Amino acid sequence: MTLTELIKVMVLKNMKREKFLTVLSVIGVALGIGLFTGVKAASDKAISSFEADIRGTNPYTNFEILDTAGTDFQEEIYRTVRKIAQNSFPVLKVEGYLPEIKSAIDIQGIDLIRTAGFLKLSPGRGSSFENYFRGLNSAIITRAFASSHSLKRGDIARAFVYDKEFSLRVSDIVDDASLPSNIFLMDLGNFQEYFGKTGYLTRIDAEADETTVSEIKKILPPSLSIGKKEAAIRNQKSLIKSFRYNLQFVSLIAILVGIFLLYNTIFISVVKRRTEIGILRGLGASKKTVVLIFMIQGLILGIAGSMLGILIGQVTAYFSVTAVEKTITSMYRAVSITDYFIPKTDIALALALGVLVSLIASAAPSFEAARIRPNESTREGTFEGGHRRMRRAYALAGLVLIALGCAVSYIDYHSMPYDFPFLAYAGILFIIFGFTLLSPSYLSLVLSGLGRPVEKLFTSVGVITVGDIKGSVYRFSVALMSVAISSALIFALLTLIFSFRNSLKAWINKNIAADVYVKPASCRSNFCFFPLSDELIKTVEGMPEVAGVDRFRTLQIDFQGRKVVAGFGDREIRRRSGDVGLAEEERRAERDFGTDRIIGVSKFLGIKFDLKVGDTVELRTPRGVQKFVVYDIFSSYSTTSGFVYLDRKWLMKYWGLDDATQFAVYLRKGADVPAFISRINEILRPRFSLSITNNAQLREHVLSIFDRTFAITYAIELISIIVSLIGVINTLLALVIEKKREITILRYLGGSWGQIRAKLVLSAGIVGVTGIFLGGIMGPLMSVIFIEVINKVSFGWEIHFHIPFYYLSIVTAVLFLITLSAGLIPLNVAKGVDPKRLISFE
Amino acid sequence: MVTLEGVQKYYGTAHVLKGVDLKLGKGEFVAVTGSSGSGKSTLLNIIGGMDRPDAGKIFVDRNEISSYDDEKLTLYRRKKIGFVFQFFNLLPNITVIENVRIPLLLNGSRDEEMAHAFVSRVGLEGREDSYPHELSGGEQQRVAIARALVHDPDIILADEPTGSLDSSTGRAIMGLLTRLREETGKTILLVTHEEYISRYASRVLKIRDGIIRQ
Ligand SMILES: Nc1ncnc2c1ncn2[C@@H]1O[C@H](COP(=O)(O)OP(=O)(O)O)[C@@H](O)[C@H]1O
Ligand SMILES: [Mg+2]
């Protein structure tokens, strides 16, 4: 094909000549795509580790039998179930923690012999099945886990399980990608005996069809239920999906900035090569050829960008895996991600994204190029003229889009048609595009207002610069928008983070009031589901400095048909121990509603079920369906899956339980907290392994989880700043290249480099100021949508709007200074210009 | 071979061509002279398919190109026309040989031999890999002539080909054009405002007030 030859001559050579521009654009695209891919890979790994966990060790089973409260149940029922469904497998599981390698693990007791076939166990290879049973603490681990923590067969690992410390011996290593990597498999009998859970099961996995299922249903007690695994997987996935969507959406905005950059590059290339295109058309090149030349230029940049992006994504994935892992562990349940390599599908996605980005970015400039007439080579035409006539229409379309974006976001706010805030995402994109269309009018408006003072302030340089920008409003608008989008993103995200952090602090002050908090060391999440030993609680209660122990029980319950976490606390203890605020609130509510059957509901559930204070809700308990009155709709920052709060007396009455999964200790006035903690440590250490924190530590811990979660957001901000700066450099650079002749003439006429520098810096400054100002309008708008819509739909966290003026002004100043210095880079390029070459060209 | 009947052209309200009639025979070398701004380039652009007349007809080999759409005009320029401009109009970022190859590539031919042959014919052997800015004005115009001839067009249109060269270089360029015309038998239409250039032509026409005078 002669086209490839033409491309080589017309595209590749040109890109080689403009290495700097090319490299800048490639990096800009790569950063956006890399961030997107990395974040996606990291959160997908978390999701698939969730999924593998539910699928369990028997890949052919499609149903699971669970206790409705999420607790372990008596194993007798298994015998009956097995008679109905041959292929059913008992599982007893618990979360553990290996303190030496700082990793959460999932310990499962299973029928090893019956599952051996699925698990590719290799008892023949130098060992026998007996090996697995010899020693109660034998555990089989995965190859992935073994190699990432360098564990060998025969190694002994210290492990926190339930509220005690144990040791586990690695008896074999299996290679099975379908298993969660952090799983420790034990023989069921050994597990029961070793951890003192004789007679209990957590789950029964079953392979069954509909008739078998209905038969099983008949024999199950009301506390047990059978459900499809697929449904459970879907449920679990949707929990972290909102988390993932939000991260991905923000990185999508970084890609958007990349699109602007690429658009800028191609557009500038078209402007700069207008004469060349005219010549080419004169020689008989068709419009199609011209379009192809620029589309392919864009495509090459886009694909090169996405290839580099895959590398960057790999690095991003490496770092975000830790953040995602920690956040999901504390919000939902322990996950451990050992593999952070981007999968092939995501590599393909990154490439596709690169192609898409480059097509979007280069379409408009390419068709613009095709409109250049063949005789334009002989006569200067005004390239911007066509746009100028359209400016009004653009501005109008822009306003319509902005209004549409707000409307769509409002619909999402008001009626939430989807489980995820897709409408709000679309709304934000509409708003960004709207502002983009509006930007040329905005810039020329500003210039006509700003022109005079600037000209006065900077005299001749001012006149030239303002005239220059006026003559290239469209090119400058593109640079302006890159700055505007990234500063809007900074404004919006900083506002979100600060508002969120402040609200969280207020919540902490209200809710973290006890002196000491105790939970099992094996539990890494905010909520634990495994009961603590009675002996442990008795010991603490009996200590002289203790004023009261608020025993807290978390349970999974059925709330209006949805599985949610319920917390049962002891109001009487809290009231007696001096934490009167909340207790008083409850007492007042009881008086107002005339009943003590009251329930607090997290905002997330309040939104999902459209609940108001005073509404009646239904809970399914082992003692039948019970009605409660909603007395409070509160913010829960500890989980995103929905949370309800009830008094302990109902736990006893309807669930028949009186245990605790974690507890808070109130000390007598004047008691020495550190001394108390070291004393209970001393007494309990030998028998229990616990995580004991004082009030301040717990507060700090909650905030540190928050900060870690938002670390990714900071990276996104940083990257979009970099990309938008590249955009500014790019525009100015292109202008310098385009104006090379003018610069040389200016030099001949006695203009100094100082004046040229002043002109470039002034241009950059104008782009910076106008861009940041526009971002200052877009940003708050975006942050309102982030907080009021996206947060509401995905998490329902209570966030009080709070604009961090102080930080924002510092960040703005820094951003402005960086933009100014972006004006200096093109100067060096201008200096490197060879005057001979310029003069001989025209 | 080329016939113009009552060709008119306006730029806004300016009536630049007011009814041009012209006949070019095959293999003829015709020069059109006229003062600056008299519409010479406009006339050439219209014949070359770069621009369209507002009235009148243009026939090339009995095809009425004045009725062509953009796509057909593009093909016409690509196959039938070789252009030589006052300011050379070489593509600045590619080498001499690449510049000469462009018309061939656009016509779907990868023939490098042909390009080399034409570079030699205009006397630039050994300069194939130079860039336009490394060449003198005269040399650049030689490249442009090679580019105008390489794809074997029927008609060469030259718009003040010596206009930006000194007179001795200009003469050399005209010598080259004449020699190549004799060798290839191409039809040449050349416009110039310099009297001495028109002496190379076999027929000289004058354009004034938008009308061709014999
Ligand atoms: N694209 C154009 N737009 C407006 N006026 C034009 C354009 N091209 C040529 N003209 C005008 O038409 C007249 C003839 O121009 P041209 O054909 O270039 O003259 P010549 O080549 O004889 O110097 C001039 O007055 C010129 O200003
Ligand atoms: Mg002319």
TrEMBL record, chain A:
The chain crosses the membrane at residues 249-270, 290-312, 347-372, 393-411, 423-445, 480-500, 711-737, 758-785, 805-827. InterPro entries: ABC3_permease_C, Lipoprotein-release_system, MacB_PCD. GO terms for cellular component: plasma membrane protein complex. The keyword Secreted does not apply. It is found in: Cell membrane. It is a multi-pass membrane protein. Its main location: membrane. GO terms for biological process: lipoprotein localization to outer membrane. The keyword rRNA-binding does not apply. Pfam families: FtsX, MacB_PCD. It comes from the Bacteria. Residues 249-373, 718-831 form the ABC3 transporter permease C-terminal domain. Residues 479-682 form the MacB-like periplasmic core domain. Keywords: Cell membrane, Membrane, Transmembrane, Transmembrane helix. Belongs to the ABC-4 integral membrane protein family. LolC/E subfamily. This is ABC transporter permease. It comes from Candidatus Sulfobium mesophilum.
TrEMBL record, chain B:
Keywords: ATP-binding, Nucleotide-binding, Transport. Residues 2-214 form the ABC transporter domain. The keyword Metal-binding does not apply. One of its GO terms (cellular component) is membrane protein complex. The keyword Metal-binding does not apply. It comes from the Bacteria. InterPro entries: AAA+_ATPase, ABC_transporter-like_ATP-bd, ABC_transporter-like_CS, ABC_transpr_LolD-like, MacB-like_ATP-bd, P-loop_NTPase. GO terms for molecular function: ATP binding; ATP hydrolysis activity; transmembrane transporter activity. This is ABC transporter domain-containing protein. Belongs to the ABC transporter superfamily. Macrolide exporter (TC 3.A.1.122) family. SUPFAM superfamilies: P-loop containing nucleoside triphosphate hydrolases. Transmembrane segments: none annotated.
